[in-house]
Amino acid sequence: MLPLAAVPGEARDPDGRYANSPLKQWFDSLRSGKGPCCSDADGSAVSDVDWESKGGRYRVRIDGEWYEVPEDAVITEPNRAGRTMVWPIRGYQGLSIRCFMPGSMT
Question: According to the lineage, what is the superkingdom (predicted)?
């Protein structure tokens, strides 16, 4: 069981420390069918062992528990960062996935 690791500059940037990242504008523009990715949730890189694709659907392991990725949470544009990313949101009804961007499994 591997925890999610945050990737600097690839999530919300409340204090502006990643303002000069060449991917900042691209991350800020990412959207899924659920809305903007970086507006409400921090994105995290996902290790290859913590996500899978089967039958055209994705699953991701977050904090040791597997979650089905809703189809409308999948980002379909090319992944410029290369790494698999997930934007989970924790609320009163538990964890939901705002955005998921598959990477290339190596």
Answer: Bacteria
The pLDDT tens digits for 44-89 are: 889 999 999 999 899 999 999 999 999 999 999 998 888 999 999 9
Q: What is the DSSP letter of 4?
A: -
CA 61, CA 83: separation in Å to the nearest integer?
15
Encoded amino acid at 37, one letter = C
DSSP 39-85: TTS--EE--GGGEEEETTEEEEEETTEEEEPPGGGB--S--SS-S-E
Q: Hey, what are 30's tokens? A: 């990412």
Query: Which residue's entry shows tokens 């999610």?
Result: 4
Residues 6 or more apart in contact with residue 54 via CB below 8 angstroms: none
Residue 4 CA to residue 79 CA, distance in Å, equals 18
Phi, psi of 29 (to 5 degrees): -90, -10
Compute φ and ψ for 28, nearest 5 degrees. Answer: -60, -25
